[in-house]
């Protein structure tokens, strides 16, 4: 399999690309963030392109390792007929950057273009709030060889875009993919709106094309649409050739040229890319590459780790954030940023564990209560009765003896060779002590007591 992507993501600007309408289209009533320009009314003249959008596009192109086009850049009119675009054309720039690379996949080009409106065929209505929002378009070479590789690439691309802090997330993604199998023709799939969708569409398409080829049938060169709800692709129309779009430079927009100084200034202010951050974390904090990968999977998480590592041993912090914090985030299906957890809360929690104010087990319980919780870990510990570690040998022994006495079956099982019964008994001791005992030390005591009981 060979495939290449065209990925569109919205840029984070306050106003649209060719007018001053705001871009917060999700919060606004339909067709309220509009003007004659972004409604594409005949004769409405676009303003000069949004400078912030141009700067963001350059920044992202550079972060993707692209060379910057030093020649003249035009906004082209790309013609097509669809209700989301009353003018009949979408404005898209000639390449701003080219010849980049990410995850071993070559980036052919990066463009800047305008988003069309949102057409809802089932209702027959169009909302133009989205029309004119700047998009970054990233075009790859057909270097991707499996759905898994595609998924990895898209994840890494989203990470770079997040790190740029200039692009919106996967929620605004729209991608087209060109896919072909050896001996078959190239098929374009449109309407891919998520990384998972891309993976499923490719899986389906490979199977469909393979079946045709195996039966000696031809794979038609066509454009297909991905129906996310059914996880299948269906024919859309015969593939357009570039000439069908009748590209012409938009006479209402001035050509652009970037001067050397301007590019240099952007280069100087580029943020770290995710791969740069992984490398630095390994060197600076002496943590493993795997830990660094997990911690840099989200910019907010990476930033929080650096805050925490100022006060807590970085290896200890990395271990807790990678294992326990990530466990809690994925259980709740939220990102770190969404969780509202602060570095301050994490520092306090880890300090409590280090100072033996709570057990490790209690720490694991408390961290589960941190998402969407403004309370400090100490307050949470108090509420849950988890404060304190039982050091008193007598008390531990008492709990152990009670657990043995109350669970003769488990003790018997152990004597009959079922070693796992000991873990059950440890669990009972934990319950009796509200998890305030050190598990390793308690296990030693428990084991010797159970063996004595034979
Ligand atoms: Zn407008």
Would you write up a description of this structure?
This protein has 16 helices and 14 strands. By secondary structure, the protein is of the alpha+beta class. It folds into three domains: 2-183 and 239-267, no CATH class; 274-384, no CATH class; 393-452, Arc Repressor Mutant, subunit A (Orthogonal Bundle). A nine-stranded mixed sheet has the order 2-5-6-9-1-10-11-12-13. Strands 4-3-14 form a three-stranded antiparallel sheet, with no helix packed on it. A two-stranded antiparallel sheet has the order 7-8. The radius of gyration is 29 Å and the shape is elongated. The chain binds zinc ion. Zinc ion binds next to loops. Residues 303-450 form the Asn/Gln amidotransferase domain.
Mean pLDDT: 92
Summed up, the domain count is 3
Quote the beta fraction: 15-25%
Structural class: alpha+beta
Radius of gyration: 29 Å
Query: What characteristic shape results from the CA principal axes?
Result: elongated
What can be said about the biggest beta sheet?
A: 9 strands, mixed
Give the strand line-up of the largest sheet: 2-5-6-9-1-10-11-12-13
What fraction, in percent, of the residue positions are helical? 40-55%
Span of the ends, CA to CA:
64 Å
Number of helices: 16
Question: Helices and strands, in N-to-C order?
Answer: EHEEEEEEEEHEEHEEEHHHHHHHHHHHHH
Low-confidence stretches: none
Structure summary, number of beta strands: 14
* Cofactors and ligands: zinc ion
């Amino acid at each position: 399999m060979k495939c290449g992507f065209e990925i569109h993501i919205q840029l984070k600007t306050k106003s649209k690309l060719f007018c001053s309408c705001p871009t917060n289209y999700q919060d606004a009533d339909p067709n309220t963030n509009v003007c004659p320009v972004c409604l594409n009314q005949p004769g409405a003249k676009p303003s000069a392109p949004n400078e912030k959008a141009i700067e963001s596009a350059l920044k992202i192109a550079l972060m993707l390792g692209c060379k910057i086009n030093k020649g003249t850049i035009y906004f082209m009119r790309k013609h097509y007929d669809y209700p989301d675009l009353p003018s009949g054309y979408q404005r898209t720039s000639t390449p701003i950057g080219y010849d980049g690379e990410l995850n071993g996949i070559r980036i052919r080009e990066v463009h800047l273009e305008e988003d069309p409106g949102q057409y809802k065929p089932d209702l027959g209505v169009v909302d133009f709030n989205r029309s004119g929002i700047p998009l970054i378009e990233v075009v790859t070479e057909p270097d991707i060889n499996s759905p898994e590789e595609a998924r990895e690439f898209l994840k890494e691309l989203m990470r770079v875009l997040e790190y740029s802090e200039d692009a919106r997330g996967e929620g605004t993604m729209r991608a087209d993919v060109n896919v072909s199998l050896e001996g078959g023709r190239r098929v374009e799939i449109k309407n891919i709106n998520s990384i998972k969708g891309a993976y499923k569409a490719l899986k389906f398409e490979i199977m469909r094309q393979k079946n045709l080829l195996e039966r000696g049938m031809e794979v038609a060169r066509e454009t297909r649409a991905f129906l996310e709800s059914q996880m299948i692709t269906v024919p859309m129309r015969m593939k357009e050739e570039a000439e069908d779009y009748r590209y012409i430079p938009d006479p209402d927009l001035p050509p652009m040229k970037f001067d050397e100084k301007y590019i240099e200034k952007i280069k100087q202010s580029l943020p770290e890319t995710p791969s740069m951050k992984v490398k630095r974390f390994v060197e600076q904090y002496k943590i493993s590459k795997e830990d660094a990968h997990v911690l840099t999977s989200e910019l907010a998480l990476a930033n929080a780790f650096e805050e925490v590592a100022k006060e807590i041993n970085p290896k200890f912090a990395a271990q807790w954030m990678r294992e326990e914090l990530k466990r809690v985030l994925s259980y709740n299906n939220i990102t770190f940023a969404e969780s509202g957890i602060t570095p301050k809360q994490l520092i306090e929690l880890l300090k409590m564990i280090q100072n033996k104010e709570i057990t490790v087990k209690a720490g694991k319980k408390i961290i589960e209560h941190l998402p969407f919780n403004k309370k400090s870990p100490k307050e949470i510990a108090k509420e849950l009765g988890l404060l304190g570690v039982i050091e008193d040998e007598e008390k531990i022994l008492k709990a152990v003896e009670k657990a043995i006495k109350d669970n003769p079956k488990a003790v018997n099982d152990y004597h009959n060779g079922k070693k796992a019964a000991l873990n059950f008994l440890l669990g009972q001791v934990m319950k009796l002590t509200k998890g305030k005992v050190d598990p390793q030390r308690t296990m030693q005591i428990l084991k010797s007591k159970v063996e004595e009981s034979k």
